Amino acid sequence: MLEKVYQSEFVIISVDDSKSFTMMTWTKETFDLEDHIYRKEVLNWIEALKKYQPRYVLDDARLFSMPIAPETQEWAAQVNNENKIETIEKYAIVMPKDYISNLSTDQNIEEVIIHQVEKTTAAIQQFDVMDTAMNWLGMDMA
Questions:
Q1: What pTM value is reported for the model?
Q2: CATH number of 3-137
């Protein structure tokens, strides 16, 4: 059962330890999200991943609506690379519906992959539909 472990105006982080599953859900309030707050939320996400050491991760960015500046994309890639979570086997991202946010998120993912010092063993996959992402992760929607 998912348990909420962090919540702000912009993001909710939930964990199901019994399934080794962690989920981040961006809220519709991200249209007001400022760069420095986005960076803080990324660090909160990384801390949750370090603490719970999940095998399966879902980044639900369907409502994400902040264009991510190129320098912030690079920063996020470096931070992710420096804090690689070895336990992650599958990382699913449900992409934003908004075109600019989708493009920005896609570029952010590409930066993370480019900046990897060592190739990760985790499979990273983008999805347009939540059900498909959850099925790929082996999680039921119940």
A1: 0.85
A2: 3.30.750
